Amino acid sequence: MTSPVRLHNVRKTFPRGVVAMDDVTVDFPAGTMTAVMGPSGSGKSTLLHCAAGLDEPDSGDVTLVGVPLAGKSETQLTELRREHVAFVFQQFNLMPALTVRQNVTLPALLAGTTVDDGWVTEVLRRVGLADRVGHRPGELSGGQQQRVAIARALATRAAVVFADEPTGALDSRTALEVLELLREVARGGQTIILVTHDPVAAAHADQVLFLVDGRIVSRLHRPTVETVATQLIGIER
Known about the structure:
Elements: E1 5-14, E2 18-28, E3 33-37, H1 44-51, E4 59-64, E5 67-68, H2 74-84, E6 85-88, H3 100-111, H4 117-126, H5 142-155, E7 160-164, H6 172-187, E8 191-195, H7 199-202, E9 207-212, E10 215-221, H8 225-235
Parallel strand pairs: 3-8, 3-9, 6-7, 7-8
Antiparallel strand pairs: 1-2, 1-4, 4-5, 9-10
């Protein structure tokens, strides 16, 4: 099984000597969903940012869809991400003048790729926005805006989807529907990497990585809510 995202001996520090990534080596295989968990400040978001080429590590190697990121210009990194990567960040970054559907199809238009209208419609339905496609972000609740961001990330069928707390603002029913959709697209061959604090969300993943002080301290395969919660209690003691 190929791994579109690979980190090898990655180290990242921030001012005042804060170590966010401490010799991290991990592969994220195609067709899988991985949850990344850990206490606040453990390096979860930094792992995502380094894996996506948004942050440059101090040392170590990062490979994204077979391309080593070291030495790439910002323009080259942007083009690589535009073609192969999608994001769901805690800041939704929606265009206020565009409708829901226009926001969802914008990445494909910017990349010059064909919009699959049928898939866009299906994704919008699956995230519960079928009756909001003509609305603008200012007319939506925070949870609805988050669903637009999720639909936008999935609409292009990007090889890799990075998601930072993708269900954080959603009610439990919608969150479960989104998690099932994420599992489905992973089964279709995409690679999903999500940061979450929620054992229910993590239990939908194929594996869970637990970070403490920038290090992967344990992993779970085929997680359940109970095994995830037990592991979290153990690392937070």
